[in-house]
Amino acid sequence: MKEVNRSLVVIKPKQPYVEWANSFMDDDEAQITFHRDCNAYLIDEIDEDGDEERIVKKVYRRIFEEELHAWMTDENVWPKKRDYPTFRAWFDVEFHSLVFDLGYNQLEAEDY
Predict the structure, then answer these.
(1) Is residue 47 helix, strand or coil?
(2) What is the pTM of this model?
(3) Cα 6 off chain centre by
(4) Backbone angles phi, psi at 67, to 5 degrees
């Protein structure tokens, strides 16, 4: 087991995101509710209390856009206002300061 020098945030959609996502669904398609399998992102290591918000504020735009893109690739229909307060209104953020790699295979990363 290896401890990695990252922390983790789990992004959980809230009602505004769900309503936005469902606005693209036809009436006969199943509407989404809340994700059970939420996205998780590695972030810089959280060393001290209070680091969480500071670190997430640095990367929230990337997370916000990734969450929007996961549902709708047409950026023209994304919400125009994508500031930090809007991000927090659309998503719960769950912080985890320690991340351990329990895998047996070599850890790999892919840029995109």
Answers:
(1) coil
(2) 0.85
(3) 15
(4) -65, -40
Amino acid at 110: E
**Cα distance between residue 13 and residue 36, in whole Å:** 10
Instruction: Convert the pLDDT of each residue in 66-107 to its tens digit.
Output: 999 988 999 999 999 999 999 999 999 999 988 898 888 887
* Residue 61 near residue 90 (C-beta atoms within 8 A): no
> CA-CA distances (angstroms) from residue 12 to 20, 79, 96, 108?
14, 18, 14, 25
Write the pLDDT tens digit of every residue in 4-22.
Answer: 899 999 999 999 999 998 8
The secondary element (H helix, E strand) that includes residue 39 is strand 39-44
**Do 34 and 19 touch, CB atoms closer than 8 A?**
no
DSSP for 13-27, please give it.
E-HHHHHHHHTTS-T
**Cα–Cα distance between 36 and 7 in angstroms, integer?**
21
